[in-house]
From TrEMBL:
Residues 4-170 form the Glycosyltransferase subfamily 4-like N-terminal domain. It comes from the Eukaryota. This is Glycosyltransferase subfamily 4-like N-terminal domain-containing protein. Pfam families: Glyco_trans_1_4, Glyco_transf_4. It comes from Ceratopteris richardii (Triangle waterfern). InterPro entries: Glyco_trans_4-like_N.
Length: 376
């Protein structure tokens, strides 16, 4: 029997057929990318799907979040699996965090957009609870999201699955030789600890929070350096410090990013978004780098167990982030390297792309034949 996998995507790639192994083929169907507002015209992909499904019905249909709308999922029938990388219930916490930070900044006047977001988010949760049941099987990418889907969205336990995010372990791995080359290329200091952060340098990712906390840390620890990989409005704010202790690298390729993780002493993720399981944390851990992250349940319940052996967490406010960075600096390189090794051991066991792919394969086989649902 020939197994086929069809991928409907908006990535700018050439439609090709890649041979995985004998009798197994992968087909890409490429469609226009989303608009600047993030909206995706699903109709062209849906028409292509209907055409293929009519000639040879698909056994399993897998959707990333709401890429396959609930109305169309109902038309497909059984065998629909959807992976949730974030749900509306989690974003309520993100809105609350930002509202509290505004108060901490002395901004007591109501933020109309934020107030509307909080109200709309509550309605979105109620709406989600209604249409989530249109999908037969649900995959949560963190333990906390899985718990919320069962308790808040009332998804039956036998239709709820947890498959955590994984990243390419061949690319993101300890690379001691590359560490030296990368440090020399970008002028990273040899003395003093180096903190690193990566991603979109925007406010909701916590870079305003990091800016304030690191500015205070520099007063106490003038030998510490912060290296930022990524672009965004807050990149310019960090550059305006005109400090040799702050290096903004801009956007990096995946290969460069892998070396970046190897070069820093601790990876800082100051996100204010309490959704899903951030890939950057997994990439850093697989590279053997300890992490310093916001204490959100989606992070600590899945990644940082036990927390004290893998890194540091902080509440999303200036004093807590400053205290966590201060602790990491005082611990020093020996402790950080020990935690980095522990991060690598945990991530290589649980959070690799290979592990994730095997878990999805087992789930799809289980849906088709319950024999595969039984484990020794």
């Amino acid at each position: 029997m020939n197994d086929e996998t069809h991928v409907f995507t908006t990535d700018r790639v050439t439609a090709t057929i890649n041979e995985w192994q004998e009798g197994c083929c992968l087909f890409f169907h490429v469609f226009p990318p989303p608009t600047a507002q993030g909206s995706f015209d699903v109709d062209p992909a849906w028409q292509k799907f209907l055409s293929l499904n009519a000639s040879s019905p698909f056994d399993i249909v897998h959707s990333e979040s709401a890429a396959l709308p609930a109305v169309k999922a109902q038309l497909v029938g059984g065998g629909v699996v959807v992976s949730w990388h974030g749900i509306a219930y989690e974003t309520i916490q993100s809105d609350i965090v930002q509202k509290v930070l505004r108060r901490e900044d002395g901004k007591t006047r109501p933020d109309v957009k934020l107030e509307e977001a909080l109200s709309n988010r509550t309605h979105a949760v109620v709406e989600e609870i209604g249409w989530f049941h249109s999908h037969e099987h649900h995959v949560a990418t963190s333990d906390y999201a899985g718990e919320m889907l069962e308790t808040i969205h009332q998804i039956p336990h036998n239709r709820m699955h947890i498959i955590v995010n994984g990243v390419d372990e061949r690319r993101f791995r300890p690379n001691y030789a590359g560490r030296r080359r990368f440090g020399q290329l970008y002028g990273l200091p040899k003395e003093g600890l180096v903190l690193g952060a990566a991603g979109r340098l925007v406010k909701d990712k916590g870079y305003a929070l990091l800016f304030r906390a690191f500015s205070l840390l520099l007063v106490e620890q003038p030998s510490v350096t912060l290296v930022l990989a990524g672009d965004g409005p807050w990149g310019n704010r960090f550059r305006e410090l005109q400090s040799t202790n702050v290096i903004v690298l801009g956007s990096l390729t995946a290969e460069q990013l892998a070396l970046f993780y190897n070069t820093i002493d601790v990876f800082v993720n100051p996100t204010l978004c309490a959704q899903g399981l951030d890939h950057t944390l997994v990439e850093a851990m697989l590279s053997g780098t300890p992490v310093l992250a916001t204490h959100f349940s989606s992070i600590v319940r899945s990644l940082l167990v036990p927390e004290d052996q893998l890194g540091y967490t902080f509440a999303p406010n200036v004093s807590s982030l400053l205290a966590a960075m201060r602790t990491a600096v005082l611990d020093g390189r020996d402790v950080l390297r020990r935690k980095g090794r522990a991060c690598y051991e945990r991530a290589s066991l649980l959070f690799t792309a290979t592990k994730m792919a095997c878990a999805y394969e087992r789930l799809f086989m289980c849906i088709r034949n319950t024999t595969y649902c039984m484990y020794d």
